[in-house]
Amino acid sequence: MTAKILIVGIGNRYRGDDGLGCFIVDELKKQATHDVEVIEHNGDPASLIDLWQGRSQVILIDAVSSGAEIGTIHYVDLRQQALPDTFQRYSTHALGVAEAVELARVLGKLPPYIIFWGIEGENFETDAQQSVRLRQAITALQDRVLKAINTEIGESQRA
Amino acid sequence: MNPENKTRTIKVDYLARVEGEGALYLKIQEGKLEEVQLKIFEPPRFFEGFLRGRHFSEAPDITARICGICPIAYQMSAVHAIENAFNITIGGALRDLRRLVYCGEWISSHALHIFMLHAPDFLGYESAIHMAKDFPEKVEQGLQLKKVGGMLMSLVGGREIHPINIRVGGFYRAPSKQELQTLVPALKQAREDALETVRWVSSFNFPDFEQHYTFISLRHENEYPMNEGRIVSNHGLSISASEFDDYFEEIHVAHTNALHCVLKVDHHPYHVGPMARYALNFDRLPEPIQWEAKQAGLERICRNPFKSIIVRAIEVRYACEEALRIIDTYTAPAVSFVEIEPKPAIGYAVTEAPRGILYHRYQIDGEGDIVDCDIIPPTSQNQKMIEKDLKQFVPRYLKLSDERLQWYAEQAIRNYDPCISCATHFLKLNVDRS
Prior knowledge:
The structure holds 2 protein chains of 2 kinds. Helix content of chain A is about 35%, strand content about 20%.
């Protein structure tokens, strides 16, 4: 049966901080107690939109390069607003997460609850190591997502 | 001041709706186009360098990482080149499965380009998102076609992005007939959607522009080419993959990080991809699809690069048909791969990636380790041809504003569905009007 909450870690594990979303969902997979499905994704719009069809609650986690301080945690309620243009998204594809969200919005395929969590990364080069300056931010983001899953979304489920 | 009396520079620093990072620079002086540079600034990725010393069995998985759109192409060229080195030919159901998974990649890659990247050019939209407001059903159709291609790649290749089930000698696991049959209803719908797409894109307005291309593609004795065949041209070339280096040459060009591949004899550019395959293999398409192409306004040879969108749609139609044929006749093989004993050898292969021929050469030692290798993707081969198209095409539109000129120039580039990530293993526009 399809889990209530879908958490999507976006990125490429072999490009330094670009893999943040993937590493964070690894941890969430171990710790989440609610009815959660956790997957890793490369950000391709067609399959992302397809993935969240029929889902009521979706959380996207990705690395961000917006010029903010390294380790900044970004939160965007995608029902309310688009991903800011300043989020330079690292993708080898012509289309990425922002396009997937906007295409879904135009096509009426955006889930009722869809949140984007991001961490400002530092190093996005091929074969780069994950930046050590981000460890604290990663833990903080994991805690916030877990809290959201276990309380806010959980509450809405019980309701 | 009369705009024709000055130098105009049109610079597109970051070309949109292409795969990867590139730029275009146009310099127009005294009303004449003086310079065209397709710049690829995504850094070189040195795949050939770090394949050295790796075992041959790792090549399909490592080279698949060159591109998220066409990983199957890299895997196919890798396995065929290595098998060529060891004098092994894979036949029967394993051969069919390779063709089937390639069908999936053609459908997925072409659908992405037709609907998300190229169609907005013809309909006057900035992006597929803008187009989706007026053509939601078309965008959904494109997404669905892409999904079906992805389903094929996932089922046969293990997963859609950077598939993991492909190995030298065959597959880690061969799917059962029942598993493949689960895709039949979706493929039948995709086949109909593809025909609708052929009709839809053929209704677009196309600039009146033709080039006398040297087309290069594979040609197989009885199939529309994917994994096998001789390298042929419309000027009489017919060579095997092992002769590629004798006829083609990669040259370094200062303005781009990707090597230009040209004809060795005269350093002239050539055209690879759907239009080349179609021109050189029209007779290998099933007759009903030949008829559908004609109905869509395509001649036996199409020389208008803007009409490549119709040819891609025809190839999607064909790939759906071919996938259904393969599934229908498929019987799961007794073993999913052939064991291979390494020996010192050199192997070559060319396969037809969605964007054109993809050449791999591997030199392997007695332990099975790669000593040296060479990879030439289709976008490297098309780069110089794209610049030549722009040199012919842009002068017709010099009186347009920079904005409109840029639009047409970018559209002309997108005719080739360039994959920059592949070419650097490789866009941003600069128009200089001084």
